[in-house]
Design brief:
mainly alpha, 80% helix
């Protein structure tokens, strides 16, 4: 259950103010059809994060060594630093609606999530916990927790949430996880 809860919390926090959340808001204003957008985000995230968690878990099982665990710990610490850099998403980068709300959201979210903080975090979580199903479920729940309110509340949510504070809390969470992995690898933590 630790893998599920940690994955949910990490991604829910990391997603706030992320370019995919800004994309969700943009799609909601363009289509004004929340349900197909929510379904598109869900399917895209399940597919993307399942592949990312599988990659992380596969790499961990192939490279189960202290060096690999140090790399996983360092990747969480690097994610902490990366999280402090604000994402920017411009309206002109948004996909032009040609295929309806669901398909546009599905394709846009899958592609925009490639190489994104939350995808990289999912790879690291997959490597840490070696549980594709729990990590995928957790990171997908985290994405939905952050994005569904954004679809309905959109711009009002962004006005009221201090993104700098959220970035700092998320960075702190990544840092703690990274340090914990390193401490476990060195035998300092149980």
């Amino acid at each position: 259950m630790e893998a599920l809860f940690t994955s949910t919390a990490v991604v829910a926090l990391a997603e706030i103010g992320d370019k995919t959340q800004l994309l969700a808001i943009l799609l909601a204003t363009r289509f004004n059809r929340p349900l197909p957008i929510i379904c598109g985000i869900l399917v895209a995230t399940l597919a993307n994060h399942a592949l990312a968690a599988l990659l992380g878990a596969s790499a961990a099982s192939l490279l189960d060594s202290p060096v690999f665990r140090y790399a996983v710990g360092a990747s969480f610490i690097a994610m902490a630093a990366w999280t402090l850099i604000p994402d920017k998403f411009h309206d002109d980068e948004a996909p032009k609606p040609r295929f309806g709300a669901f398909l546009t959201t599905l394709v846009a979210f899958f592609l925009v999530e490639m190489g994104d903080k939350t995808q990289v975090a999912t790879i690291a979580l997959g490597a840490q916990y070696q549980s594709v199903a729990l990590v995928t479920a957790g990171t997908t729940m985290g994405m939905m927790i952050a994005n569904v309110p954004a679809i309905f509340l959109g711009h009002e949510l962004l006005k009221r949430v201090n993104l700098e504070t959220v970035r700092k809390v998320t960075a702190g969470l990544f840092l703690i996880i990274g340090l914990w992995v390193l401490a476990q690898t060195m035998g300092w933590a149980g």
